Amino acid sequence: MADVFISYAREDQEFVRKLHDALVERERDTWIDWKNIPLTANFLQEVYAGIEGSDTFAYMISPDSLDSKVCMQELNHAVENNKRLAPIWHRDVDEEAVPPELALHNWVFFRESEDFEEAFERLVEAIETDLEWAKAHTRLLVRAKEWEAEDRDGSYLLRGRDLETAEKLQVREAEKEPKLTLLQKQYIHASREAATELEMRLLDTVKLGWLGGLALMLSGALYIASQLVSMYLAFNDVTNPSIRSFVAAIGLVGAPIEREDDQGAESDPRHSSASRLWPAIAAARPQSGSNRPTLIMRDRKRRPGAIW
């Protein structure tokens, strides 16, 4: 991006070179067609890109520039993109012949009769007026043009701090010149819509994660409940088909159990179902020193009416 784009007729080239050198000496980057267009490039496309990427469009007013088709094309493109204009009055013309877009602005008189240094300082002052806004306008325009050139691909949209900065520019626009173009406003709007959609997707992902965690908790609770029911059936010889169907539907296996029985190896005949489980239960018992918890099931005969 450049500070100044200089539009001029070939008849004024000698003066323009002098002006260009003075701007470079003042550390102002200029876009000018004799040094910025590759030989193999499309001339007009390169010129338009140079206008879009410059903070100020300086138009050299002279009889030849007003008659130049290319100069008029450059001016029209600058106006279409709301570039800041700096008309430089170099050679006298009929004021009525000056395009209205230039006539609305204060001219910087740069005639041969003018003191070059004084005129140059006025031009630099015009270029640097509200320079922050002009540069922000240029950056946003360049990015909006890239987005448009790529068929408004979402990957070219603004995000994060860039989007916040652009939205602040839009708020300040009422009191600033030049104004934002329609394309720039569409670009900001599309960027905000995409950012909002992304935020909603992230929120949905968090919700799904939370529901997934809740489902795991419920599944764990169901597993524990099935263990308890299985152990109850084993020690109480429940034959109710509805209860057994429920447990079969759950399809989970009980935890390791240690039987506490003061009667020794003899067990209540009513506990025959539990007795048949002892080999499997014993095999599932943790070895000595294991940290695996063991459930102590008390004999129903010793504590009548108790489940465990």
Could you please describe the fold and organization of this structure?
- It is a single chain.
- The chain has 308 residues and is of the alpha/beta class.
- The protein folds into 3 domains: 129 residues, 3-Layer(aba) Sandwich (Rossmann fold), CATH 3.40.50; 93 residues, no CATH class; 75 residues, no CATH class.
- It has 13 helices and 7 strands.
- The strands form 2 sheets. It has a 5-stranded parallel β-sheet with strand order 2-1-3-4-5, with helices on both faces. A two-stranded parallel sheet has the order 6-7.
- α9 packs across α10.
- About 15% of the residues have low confidence.
Topology:
Elements: E1 2-7, H1 13-25, E2 30-31, H2 33-36, H3 43-52, E3 54-61, H4 63-67, H5 69-80, E4 84-89, H6 100-103, E5 108-109, H7 116-128, H8 131-149, H9 160-172, H10 182-236, H11 241-250, E6 257-260, H12 272-275, H13 278-284, E7 295-298
Parallel strand pairs: 1-2, 1-3, 3-4, 4-5, 6-7
Helix pairs in contact: 9-10
- Taken together, the total number of domains comes to 3
Number of strands: 7
Structural class: alpha/beta
Helix content: 40-55%
CATH architecture label of the largest domain = 3-Layer(aba) Sandwich
Describe the main β-sheet briefly.
5 strands, parallel
Question: Helix count?
Answer: 13
Give me the side-by-side strand order of the main sheet: 2-1-3-4-5
Shape by Cα distribution? rod-shaped
- Roughly how many Å apart are the termini? 83 Å
In CATH, the topology of the largest domain is named: Rossmann fold
Low-confidence blocks of residues: 252-286, 292-303
- Proportion of residues in extended strands: 5-15%
Radius of gyration: 42 Å
Order of H and E elements: EHEHHEHHEHEHHHHHEHHE
CATH class of the largest domain: Alpha Beta
Can you say what the CATH homologous superfamily of the largest domain is? Answer: Toll/interleukin-1 receptor homology (TIR) domain
